[in-house]
Amino acid sequence: MHPSTIIVTGSSIASLNVAYTVTPPTTIPSGFSEVCINNDWDPPQTWGKLNEGREWYGAKNGAYVYLNGADGMWWMDTPDGLGKFVARFGGEGNVPTDGWRPLPGVEGGTPKVAFA
After folding, report:
1. Are 88 and 104 in contact (CB under 8 A)?
2. What is the pLDDT of residues 36-94, one digit of tens each?
3. Are 76 and 68 in contact (CB under 8 A)?
4. Which of 14, 87, 88, 96 is the most core-located residue (most Cβ within 10 A)?
5. Taking the mean position of all CA atoms in its chain, how far away is CA 86?
6. Is 16 strand, coil or helix?
7. Cβ–Cβ < 8 Å for 48, 66
8. Could you give the 3-state DSSP secondary structure of residue 37?
9. Is residue 70 within 8 Å of residue 49, measured between CB atoms?
């Protein structure tokens, strides 16, 4: 069973340091859709391919955390839909609490995740 809420702290990106709640796989993050549209990708098709029908975690500000089925990594994205940190999928199904790595161009502290 996945926790219903996660809390991110310690990220160098303030918009990621918030609470996230479980969101159904049929809901596509607005930032994700925006990135798709800007790249001429079909948002539902791309989300379906990457998210593979899994629940994900969304924040009120639009930031989100999801398990990307294409690369097997957990992704932490800012409200604009841009990925900022990734963590290796450990097989237990839950979001990793640590081990987050910054993507190129991201400086500063890496996030920690707590289950609420």
Report:
1. no
2. 999 999 999 999 999 999 999 999 999 999 999 999 999 999 999 999 999 998 766 78
3. no
4. 87
5. 8
6. helix
7. no
8. helix
9. yes
- How is residue 72 written in tokens? 């097997």
pTM reported for the whole predicted model = 0.95
- Rounded (5°) CA angle 4-9-13: 115
CA dihedral over 70, 77, 45, 93, signed as positive or negative: positive
Nearest partner of 112 among 97, 91, 90, judged by Cα: 97
* Model pLDDT for residues 3-29, shown as the tens digit of each residue: 899 999 999 999 999 999 999 999 999
Please, what is the Cα angle at 99 between 62 and 82, to 5 degrees?
30
Number of residues in the chain: 116
Tokens 């190129």 belong to residue: 104
Rounded distance, CA 75 to CA 67, Å?
6
Which amino acid, one-letter code, is at 97? Answer: T
